[in-house]
């Protein structure tokens, strides 16, 4: 049900880090038609487990000793895959998630 890509697993393993999958609301406003809405996007972060606040709001999974916290309001549509996105110079490492929708 849960799989972590080898590159992402190597990045966190042995450092006592975990993955946190949550939702980021981005407000979108259009002056032409007076439209105001929020767009929900998934946010995958790497944190120390002690930095995760409100653990009761998350479903906790574990893969090869690495914990993954997934916000309970998210929908799991298929097998969950956490992967490392392409590294861009001078930008912090980024991660993505498949199998979850907001």
List keywords for this structure.
4-stranded mixed beta sheet, 102 residues, mainly beta, 1 helix, 7% helix
Radius of gyration: 15 Å
Distance between termini?
A: 18 Å
| Helix-strand makeup class | mainly beta
Query: Overall 3D geometry?
Result: globular
Number of strands: 7
- How does the major sheet shape up? 4 strands, mixed
Number of helices: 1
Strand order of the largest sheet: 3-2-5-4
Helix content: under 10%
Spans of 5+ residues with little confidence (pLDDT < 50)? none
Strand and helix order: EHEEEEEE
Beta-sheet strand percentage?
over 45%
The overall average pLDDT, rounded, is 89
What's this, in brief?
7% of the residues lie in helices and 59% in strands.
Please characterize this protein's 3D structure.
It is a single chain. A hairpin with a 4-residue loop joins β2 (17-30) and β3 (35-48). It is built from one helix and seven strands. It has one helix at 6-12; strands spanning 2-4, 17-30, 35-48, 58-63, 66-71, 75-84, 95-101. The chain is globular, with a radius of gyration of 15 Å.
